[in-house]
Amino acid sequence: MTDTTAPVLVDRDARGVVTLTMNRPASFNALGEEMLGALQAALDRVADDASARAVVIAAAGKAFCPGHNLKEMIARPELAYYQQLFAQCSRMMLSIQKLPVPVIARVHGIATAAGCQLVAQCDLAVASTEAKFAVSGVNFGLFCATPSVPLLRNIAPKQAMEMLVTGDFIDAEQARERGLVNRVAAPDKLDAELESLLASILAKPRQALAMGKELFYRQRELGVEAAYQLASETMAVNMMDACAQEGVTAFAEKRKPTWAA
Asked: What would the CATH number be for the domain defined by 8-202?
């Protein structure tokens, strides 16, 4: 039975879609120690689930996530504590990237500071037209250093820098235009838009997506020659996989492929 008081609610449907719902609406789902620990544990379980196909990160209440829990942070003004907290957060963010399945942020309300970082760190994002985004730590004298890492890898440098030095909000359509989110939908159509994206992903073989996701992030950090070398090797290995053999054969035979379960 699901514990409805848990900081993160976990739901897994028959297709292998795992939905992680941040469940601290009173704090707008701030990334305090409890929330970070719960998200990490849930992501670790997905990493060990060979039948998982996709992850959705959602939120309860009015907001997606405002970032770190500033009340917790100010209560312990200790360098060692801050180092541990940001290392914990960075580990959770990297776990999203390391998962072999696509991770989609379902964003409504505000996503600020580390909450915006969480959106940027997800592989894909679908946002409500009512969503707003900012890396607003600078408004409190705290430059959003860790959020800048995925932000700069999502949007153009000058747009990222403007967000970081002003702390100003952008709306959902601006976020889509800049590359922070993939799709924008009215609040009552947000889940339908999410389902459309999921349906397209689930129609593809898991192994091909796993290889592709790993390659995508590894080659981004390489020079062009090394990236091509890695991509070529990945494609060769992928081509030897049964799913690619079936896909290419089906194309040649003018039929739909039948993927192994």
From this structure: 3.90.226.10
